[in-house]
Amino acid sequence: MTSPKLSSISIASQQQNVMKFVLSICFIAATILSILPCEYRDGNRIPSTIIFRQLPSIIFHAFALLLVLAFTGSFIALMIEDDTQIVRQICWYISVTSMAAVGSILAYSISSSSLNWVSYVMRE
Asked: Which regions span the lipid bilayer (predicted)?
């Protein structure tokens, strides 16, 4: 038995829900990043949290850039007219891909900082 195919309207509404979710996650993350205390390392502003402290500054800058790219892609995909579906799809793909990269950078940063913490505890 075959499953019924989703209509293009339901796919579009699912994509809109994903874009709203990405937009709100990016907004919340940007708000949190703006209120965190920062330190300057090699002339670059880095949040002085446990997550990004031990890593090179390029990791945080890639995180912030991809966060902005995900926000921009989802905002454009939500605001674009229905006439230009291909542009909406491209913005959707850019936003989802950027959000996946943000998640992977965050997972890498958390795992790296936790491994540094474990090695510090083992030395003591």
From this structure: 21-38, 58-78, 90-110
Contact (Cβ atoms closer than 8 angstroms) between residue 50 and residue 107: no
Please, are residues 23 and 31 in contact by the beta-carbon 8 Å criterion?
no
| Distance of alpha carbon 33 from alpha carbon 39, whole angstroms | 13
Give the residue with greater pLDDT, 94 vs 42: 94
Q: What is the largest CA-CA distance in the chain?
A: 63
Whole-prediction pTM value? 0.78
Place of tokens 């874009």: 19
CA 16, CA 89: separation in Å to the nearest integer?
11
Q: Give kind and range of the element (H or E) at residue 44.
A: strand 44-47
Is 120 contained in some domain?
no
